[in-house]
Amino acid sequence: MGLLFLVLLLSLSCVLGLPFYNGFYYSHGPHGRTLSDGYGEGLFSGVKLVVETTEESLFSHRGATVTLPCHYHYEPALASPRHVRVKWWRSSENGSPEQDVLVAIGPRHRSFGDYQGRVQLRQDTQQEVSLELRDLRLEDSGRYRCEVTDGLEDQSGLVELELRGVVFPYQSSKGRYQLNFHEAQQACREQDAVVASFEQLFRAWEEGLDWCNAGWLQDASVQYPIALPRQPCGGLGLAPGVRSYGQRHRRLHRYDVFCFAAALKGWVYYLEHPEKLTLQEAREACLEDGTQIATVGQLFAAWKFRGLDRCDAGWLADGSARYPIVHPRPNCGPPEPGVRTFGFPDPHARYGVYCYRQH
Questions:
Q1: Of 15, 18, 217, 269, which one has the greatest count of Cβ atoms within 10 A?
Q2: Where is the Link domain (predicted)?
């Protein structure tokens, strides 16, 4: 009779597509996987698997190495250890698919995609399964999930990783509201940046960012931050905040974009030159100095994190002319710190140039 029941249970698990394990099969519910004995009753083993991560966001910078903490234990503690499977993945955000990062079973490890060669499991202490991530990139910001499976159950914890950076509005050289979502992504990439997330824009607004032009964000929504309410920017009656146009068509609708640039690995500097330069001469002058002309993202990062303060307008790689002010003073623009812009002058106009030197 017992054998007949086992055969029937195996058949049922195959029909339902449920993985069978050791006389039981798993079902997936709103709270993860539940081990069932075939009668709809949860298996109570008397031992609970607990996964612990950090509740605080981790902050790091591009090019750094960071460890995402993850530990597990059993309640009550086990007399002998169990073999576990560990999986790290980057959680889905803004409609993007989940990204597998690393899977480990005993001494066997496998990493995936852009994480290959940059991740390893840290197991310095018993029941530690932290993730070490090296050479951080702009795209590495996000929420990472650590899942531990011991064959009977699985539990997971979340770790949020943020790169220190600066959000800046960006407009096409063709003028206001000229970028669809895909062009906005490309524009940010060309500035050594990525399209900002809502969380990054919101944090920038908390720090005082005030901009009346609407721009794309990472989730294809269009928003803009207002610190000082005024009539042309949603009206005087609205409180300060991040205004939203909601989701927009990625190909058909056109706006500006908010980009996010991380802290620099190199240096941006104003090239001391005996005379002002055209755009082409500016590019060549940086090359002659053993560097390259800086991007807008690099200039913003140097202003934000390196305290670059210069009252001289200079060419940048996109053909715009700008200058960074940390300490406002007469004849250097508005009374607030910021990166001032002259827009996109005629390429034959003459300005200085900001160059970028890698480490």
A1: 217
A2: 166-261, 266-357
